[in-house]
Amino acid sequence: MKYLKPVILFSLFISIVSLGNGCATLPDVSKVIDESPASQEPRQIVSSKGLVSPEKSKAIIDRLQQSADPTDFLDRHTAVVESVTESPLTKGNKVTLLADGPATYAAMFNAIQNAKDHINLESYIFEDDETGCKFSDLLLQKQAEGVQVNVIYDSLGSLAVADAFFQRLRDGGIQVVNFNPLNPLSSREEWGLTHRDHRKILIVDGKVAINGGINISEVYSRSPFTRKKKVKGQIHWRDTDVQIEGPAVAEFQKLFLDTWQKQKGPDLSERNNYFPALIEKGTALVRVVGSTPGESNRVPFIMYVSAITFAEHSIHLTNSYFIPDEQIVKALTDAAGRGVDVTIILPGITDSTLAFYAQRYYYSELLKSGVKIYEHKTSLLHAKTAVIDEVWSTVGSTNMDYLSLLHNDEVNAVILSREFAVEMEKMFVKDLENSRQIHRDEWKKRPLFPKIREWFVNLFARWL
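^ that's the sequence the OP posted. Answer follows.
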């Protein structure tokens, strides 16, 4: 490990130089909006039986738009997103909100225990702690029962984990892929330290998918009510996932298998049925929005900017690392300027002091435009969610920072459902109760030093 550190530091330097030279840029979303049709019937709503007719597709969207306050937000936003992705809207999905780590792990353990054919697990961090060992023990048990288990973990996110932890999984028959190894000599494709797999996906039997911001780590296992006082590291991490059953699961499966193939993972047995026939389980429309560096469009970024741009009534945003580019800032301030209720919950407790300072750099402009900002104070906020116009929601792994928007493999579930949006709003209100509002008058009176510090840290925003 100690011999690898100089390689990592040198590679990081090269990566930073490359970033500084402007090798990667975010797409101009205003241009994407201008070039997309002003209005368009959803071209590929997919049900368990295949493509839905244009007439039925239009009727579905019309009903959704009228289920909350009247809006044409969905129609305009859908046209933009569909111009940059082949991932379809799928109907007939059951979506369950998992509003914290314990709820997510309970759902994951239940899904794994009931697996019959295969388990595909992809995580940025897979720690060798109590939670990680519970997962590894259960995965090994299922592998021994004849269920094929495939695991992808990120080499940087799981840097602190000894190789022996993953070798134990391999020895038990589990197929394991180390995403983009830090050692350039082990790279399976064009190497780059900043290209990380930040996704967190569990897919069981091709029928159940769990997605969000929660890694495999003990920090998510704690309840905010059981934290031991004065014990270092016992802070509660507040995060969000969703469990999805229905046709949308196939879209998560495609992303997992695409990463497996690109990373040259072991051949997958043909005896496993990775794409079973799916039946409709609920009423939610779901689109799976993934991103991979090197593609011309960063779809999660376009998704967020266009959704904010077309919002008509409310934008309730929660994000763990908020270092937005100028397009996101403009979309938020413009929305507040036209009377949209724009409320953002950001971390007040952090695991990255520099990211926290950079986050605060944007407060003055946002507050001046009428955006309401809250800092979560009782937990370390790690969620990446949004609910717009009480009908459009997203839960996923995408942070509003440059590393996430430009360089990482990410995935978000976009859920179009009035019922699910109501659940999201209730969760948002509960988070507001545990947050402190930042008022513009007080913010303007801050001492000079914090202002200078935030300005200086923001100079390095692309690398935080």
